[in-house]
Write a structure and sequence with these properties.
Strand order of the largest sheet: 2-6-1-7-8
Main location: cytoplasm
Family: Belongs to the cytidylate kinase family. Type 1 subfamily.
CATH topology: Rossmann fold
Order of helices and strands: EHEHHEEEHHEHEHHEH
Largest sheet: 5 strands, parallel
CATH architecture: 3-Layer(aba) Sandwich
Structural class: alpha/beta
Radius of gyration: 17 Å
Subcellular location: Cytoplasm
Catalytic activity: dCMP + ATP = dCDP + ADP; CMP + ATP = CDP + ADP
Protein name: Cytidylate kinase
Distance between the termini: 20 Å
Oligomer: single chain
Bound molecules: cytidine-5'-diphosphate
Length: 219
């Protein structure tokens, strides 16, 4: 009988989690689950409805009548693919307020745990090693300096043609998100004691993947 393998990755924005997780999932034929995309999708719906991301009642009521699914590595909000919209900067600016809400976290964690029950997965986010998959086979904490992370995100926006945002704006947004994510009451971003830490500030994506695969092979 083959056991399903779980790889859990946590870390702050722009550290390289999703890039390495996607590549490793392809190499290992695992499913990649981007949990941040789920919080972003709910944020998109709240903003589209003109609701306040800080209103717990509005957010929870909206979540209870919303469907969020993954199909073939795409994310669907109420059956509409929203891969592109959820990456907009307005979503990044608001998502951490929604992700602080206890009922939202409970709902998302339940779905994420179900997704990992029937297949081998690589899942990334902020509370995967600590709350969602505390018994994961492999746990990583991927980080980088805030300057490097802001620089990576700034480059991405310039490449997408979003020239109306400065590097300083991006750095401020990331610092604000780091602060909310790591000081919130429920499931704050933190390195669990049994996670293997990789600082990618001066590492390429391939170097990071090599380090992860060699750590996995060692076990
Ligand atoms: O891609 P990026 O690192 O910018 O962020 P993300 O992984 O898409 O996550 C967006 C936001 O969702 C985070 O800043 C957290 O506020 C929230 N999040 C969370 O609370 N728990 C997770 N497991 C994943 C994301
Ligand atoms: O998922 P997370 O927010 O942790 O980061 P990401 O979206 O995977 O990576 C942010 C950007 O940094 C992407 O454009 C990656 O190509 C880039 N990156 C890099 O230049 N060097 C690395 N070692 C890791 C990521």
């Amino acid at each position: 009988m083959n056991k399903n393998i779980t790889v859990a990755i946590d870390g702050p924005a722009g550290a390289g989690k999703s890039t390495v997780a996607k590549k490793m999932a392809e190499m290992l034929s695992f499913e990649y689950i981007d949990t941040g995309a789920m919080y972003r999708a709910l944020t998109l719906k709240i903003l589209k409805l003109g609701l306040d991301p800080m209103s717990v009642e509005d957010v929870v009521n909206t979540m209870n009548s919303t469907s969020i699914d993954f199909k073939d590595n795409h994310i669907y909000l109420d059956n509409i693919q929203v891969d592109k919209e959820i990456r907009e900067n307005i979503i990044s600016q608001n998502v951490s307020y929604i992700a602080k809400i206890k009922e939202v976290r409970e709902g998302m964690v339940r779905i994420q745990q179900e997704l990992a029950k029937t297949k081998s997965v690589i899942m990334d986010g902020r509370d995967i090693t600590t709350v969602v998959l505390p018994n994961a086979d492999f746990k990583f904490f991927i980080t980088a300096s805030v300057e490097e992370r802001a620089n990576r995100r700034y480059k991405e926006l310039i490449e997408k043609g979003e020239n109306n945002i400065s590097y300083e704006d991006i750095k401020r947004e990331i610092e604000n998100r780091d602060k909310i994510d790591s000081t919130r009451e429920i499931a704050p971003l933190t390195q669990s004691r049994d996670s293997y830490k990789i600082d990618t500030t001066n590492k390429t994506i391939d170097e990071c993947i090599e380090e992860m695969i060699s750590m996995i092979n060692r076990r």
